[in-house]
Design brief:
Blueprint lengths: L1 H8 L10 H42 L6 H18 L1
Helix pairs in contact: 2-3
């Protein structure tokens, strides 16, 4: 009887969703995407920090002339990185 009570309380093993071979194949497919996403996130963070620092500098100085062309390129890259990460 004690064995029957233990069997009732034991959680049922979860069904397998895929085999080891399928998991390894999926990992090979996903790994390049994850590496790209991490690289994009790093580049995104760098650009985001530049924009934050520039905003703070503009506020402290009461306004400055900014290199519009360079910032426009960075804004486009920033937007593209966000889309790539999504």
């Amino acid at each position: 009887m004690a064995d029957e009570d233990q069997d009732k309380d034991a959680p049922e093993p979860e069904p397998r969703l895929f085999s080891l071979r399928e998991a390894e194949r999926t990992l090979r497919e996903l790994e390049p995407l994850l590496v790209e996403a991490m690289d994009c996130r790093k580049r995104y963070s760098v650009i985001d920090e530049l924009f934050t620092a520039l905003s703070a500098r503009i506020m402290m100085m009461g306004g400055i002339v900014v290199p519009y062309d360079k910032l426009a390129e960075q804004r486009i890259e920033h937007k593209n990185l966000v889309e790539t990460i999504k």
